[in-house]
Amino acid sequence: MNDHKVHKIGVLTSGGDAPGMNAATRAIVRTATYYGLDIIGFMKGYYGLVHNEFIELNNRSVSNTIQRGGTFLRSARCQEFRTEEGRKQAARNLEQLGVDTLLVIGGDGSLRGAHLLTEVWQGQVIGLPGTIDNDLAGTDYTIGFFTALDTALDAIDKLRDTADAIDRVFIVEVMGRMAGFIAQGVGIGGGAEEIIVPEYAFDIDTISEHIELAKNKGKVSFIMVLAEGAYEGGAMVLSQVLTEKTGIACRPCVLGYIQRGGSPAALDRILATKLGAYSVEAALQGVSGVMVGLINKELSLTPLEKTWTEKKPLDAYLEKIQPILAQ
After folding, report:
1. What is the mean pLDDT of residues 198-223?
2. Any idea which residues carry the catalytic annotation?
3. How far apart are the C-alpha atoms of 23 and 66, rounded to whole Å?
């Protein structure tokens, strides 16, 4: 299948960790080995690329990793890579190591870095969508998103028990500084009465009225899901504002980094494995400057720049029916 001559692949994980990154790395390593390619893993993301920190990888290196959360290649910030000289140093390291193709697993910041690398290095660069936020265009779902949903849903289910017992309003803040995919998903899955996301405008007075109306109807619990970037000050400030407006006790619950951790869900393992294998096959076909993804169950290739410049929409139908379901 090696239509385009590839001899050595490098792989790194960058940005925030996402459950399934290890599964993707495993699939990359085993697929590359199957096709007779050498493969190395750069440690701590772009930091390892600039500072030439790497390990040799083979099939045994990735044994018993598909179920592990986090990333065994680790991730770290790298200020040097933000500079052109830092990227040129990374390019020199790749050339000296004989790497033909670099596979980058990460979110929009990581893929921006991959795109910048193509300006100073002649090798192939291919991205894999690894972020719990699910905010990259060019794929229906990103690696880690399903696990983050399950983790947040588990927390909401537990909070519902407490909300029912003590007649409270809980505001659950989930990750999603610029995108509301997690908030919408867990809000619908957890039966939330309100979902607040950056993509849709909302009115504090209207939400206050909804809380009061729900209580007047006899609802004993009220769960609101808030994407972290949708309200200045987050759940802490919003809970204070709504308590003052309604006279009903509103309590914040910030889930934070717990959403990133844990063993990847089945769907994340499958998605990561599929995209990991496909990224190697795409490299063998000679493509570069793209991200692999899955759209309508079909494997896809999207130019790196398009993954963050094109706005990925939330599910409009879920947005439409949420108020109906929350009555």
Report:
1. 84
2. 133
3. 4
